[in-house]
């Protein structure tokens, strides 16, 4: 048996999310089915993050145990040929130690949120950005974002379905930058609560619109109450960027 | 009657091309139908370039004559609301002189061609790039591209269906640059022959693969023969970037 690390890009649009579901297609199922056709084995694929329906990944890390002897090249090429036409692509494959775990060995996760901030709706990037037509105040958004960085109880920014044991997380980075007609929000932490990034971005958008002041981000955080949440940003603007591991 | 200039972004994927066709959807028809629903008028929309099936536009310029009194704001918002769910977006609207013509007033056209040059196929940008899995030699491609710049008979790089009176064109710019895991080819000229950019990019890809030497680009040009063409690049990597006008 070999434990393989997979680095995977996917368009979250047609999926119910990463995790296998009874009621619709998932990224996990797409990869597991492709591997099963290649190996004859029903192996479970574990990911660093279980992204929601519609959320994309530029480079998700995952692992899988396979008995059949394979080269990294054959595993990647075979997966990509068999997963078609679903929008999933195995970028890299590497053999890892038997105790390496995509989720539990992961020490850092990075997300990008893309807001297309212009009057006209997106045509080329439909389903890949959150469209906000009114001009946003990026400086105010950045000021608000800075108030969330650090170790806090993020109960306000946590989904009711969150399975994390504790609402206390350390947010290492939350930065807002204008890139052409887009606004990018960069978030990094060891781990996030369910819906945390989308909840933070939703509130930052309220700051950008002038409906909230930057200081209202701190007020929402201190409330430790989901009812203090301004808005949950939609999934299609969110990208899982990278999973970080001690050895990588 | 007012002549309006429209700047339009579109995803070429679902269309037979810019120009209205009997046998399938076109960008022109999508916009004309939206305008007809808004105004009750059957106005023809003229574009700076008639892109092929599958070719995208970041900012196509077009014009249309409308009798009904409209503000630029209402024309843009109404078009974008009525063209949905087709992936077409009117970015800007401006009133222009009655003798301004999107095609005949245009003095420069810019295209971008995107090659995704990595082993794994694209998932997030499927239908938006040409995927070439083998590593391409960008320096050789750039050397080959430089040989085409200037005033030449581009018969080799011209489609059999080209309606241009002369195969002689002046290519102002043809540059190849690596951007992350993509290779971008930038092309600019007053006007292009039908399939010229895709034909040039197809040959440059042969140079990048080492199947042609850079000098073979000059040999193909001098042959003035379509049979000397190496390869026509597929449409989905091509973007109409900008139309240039004397006053803009």
Task: Provide tags for this entry.
homodimer; 248 residues; alpha+beta; Alpha-Beta Plaits; 2 domains; ten-stranded mixed sheet; 29% strand
Write down the CATH topology of the largest domain in chain A: Alpha-Beta Plaits
Strand content of chain A: 25-35%
Just name the CATH architecture of the largest domain in chain A.
2-Layer Sandwich
Number of H- or I-type helical stretches of chain A: 5
**CATH domain class of the largest domain in chain A:** Alpha Beta
Major sheet characteristics of chain A? 10 strands, mixed
Active site (chains A, B): 52 (nucleophile)
Function (chains A, B): Formation of pseudouridine at positions 38, 39 and 40 in the anticodon stem and loop of transfer RNAs.
Catalytic activity (chains A, B): uridine(38/39/40) in tRNA = pseudouridine(38/39/40) in tRNA
EC number (chains A, B): 5.4.99.12
Plain-language structure description:
Chains A, B: Homodimer. Chains A, B: It catalyses: uridine(38/39/40) in tRNA = pseudouridine(38/39/40) in tRNA. Chains A, B: Keywords: Isomerase, tRNA processing. 2 copies of one chain form a homodimer. Chain A has 248 residues and is an alpha+beta fold. Chain A is globular, with a radius of gyration of 19 Å. In chain A, strand 2 and strand 3 form a beta hairpin. Chain A has 2 domains: 95 residues, Alpha-Beta Plaits (2-Layer Sandwich); 137 residues, Alpha-Beta Plaits, CATH 3.30.70.660. In chain A, strands 1, 2, 3, 4, 5, 6, 7, 8, 9 and 10 form a 10-stranded mixed β-sheet that branches. Chains A and B meet through strand 4 of A and strand 4 of B.
């Amino acid at each position: 048996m070999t434990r393989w690390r997979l680095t995977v890009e996917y368009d979250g649009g047609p999926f119910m999310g990463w995790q296998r579901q009874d009621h619709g297609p998932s990224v996990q199922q797409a990869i597991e089915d492709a591997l099963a056709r290649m190996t004859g084995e029903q192996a479970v694929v574990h990911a660093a993050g279980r992204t929601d329906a519609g959320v994309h990944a530029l480079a998700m890390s995952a692992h899988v145990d396979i008995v059949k002897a394979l080269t990294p090249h054959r595993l990647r090429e075979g997966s990509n040929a068999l997963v078609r036409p679903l929008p999933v692509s195995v970028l890299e494959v590497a053999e890892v130690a038997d105790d390496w775990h995509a989720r539990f060995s992961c020490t850092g996760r990075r997300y990008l949120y893309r807001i297309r901030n212009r009057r006209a709706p997106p045509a080329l990037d439909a389903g890949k950005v959150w469209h906000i037509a009114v001009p946003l105040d990026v400086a105010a958004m950045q000021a608000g974002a800075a108030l969330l960085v650090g170790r806090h109880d993020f109960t306000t920014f946590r989904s009711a379905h969150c399975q994390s044991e504790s609402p206390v997380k350390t947010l290492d980075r939350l930065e807002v930058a204008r890139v052409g007609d887009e606004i990018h929000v960069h978030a990094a932490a060891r781990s996030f609560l369910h819906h945390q990034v989308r909840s933070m971005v939703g509130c930052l958008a309220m700051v950008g619109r002038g409906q909230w002041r930057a200081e209202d981000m701190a007020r929402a955080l201190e409330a430790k109450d989901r009812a203090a949440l301004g808005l949950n940003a939609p999934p299609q603007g969110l990208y899982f960027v990278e999973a970080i591991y001690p050895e990588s």
